[in-house]
Automatic annotation (TrEMBL):
GO terms for biological process: phosphorelay signal transduction system. SMART domains: REC (SM00448). The modification 4-aspartylphosphate is found at residue 57. The gene is mprA_2. This is Response regulator MprA. The keyword Mitochondrion does not apply. Residues 8-124 form the Response regulatory domain. InterPro entries: Bact_response_regulator, CheY-like_superfamily, Sig_transdc_resp-reg_receiver.
Length: 127
């Protein structure tokens, strides 16, 4: 029997058509999932809820994925969550910039939900 606390995943993406099915798929794996629809809301939830992993869109209103990423890295004194940048912008320079800044994975849209769930499981140590 697994007595470890439930891992938390935060999805930060302004596209509700993507976040809802992704949330359901990740919850089906046993994770607690929270959703934020812009960068500012995402930062608030990171501060309040301390997710173990963040799925972060690059292009969003109010604050870009890179601005959110920089804020996470600067302000996470005790523990930085795993970060997966998910974006429709597949230019190689964005991938390189994201990886250089410390994201754990960079996944272009469109993606298969099963592949993204597999990445979540790998990064959070679930086999």
């Amino acid at each position: 029997m697994n007595t470890s606390p439930q891992k938390r995943v935060l999805i930060i993406d302004d596209d509700e058509g993507l976040t809802e099915p992704l949330q359901l798929a990740i919850e089906a794996e046993g994770y607690q999932v929270m959703v934020a629809h812009d960068g500012n809301e995402g930062l608030m939830k990171i501060e309040r809820d301390a997710p173990d992993l963040v799925l972060l869109d690059l292009v969003m209103p109010r604050r870009s994925g890179f601005a959110v990423l920089d804020n996470i890295l600067i302000n996470s004194r005790h523990r930085t969550p795993k970060i997966v940048m998910v974006t429709g912008n597949s230019e190689p320079k964005y991938r390189e910039l994201a990886l250089d800044r410390g994201v754990d994975r960079f996944i272009p849209k469109p993606y298969h939900i099963e592949d993204l769930v597999k990445t979540v499981n790998e990064l959070l140590g679930k086999e």
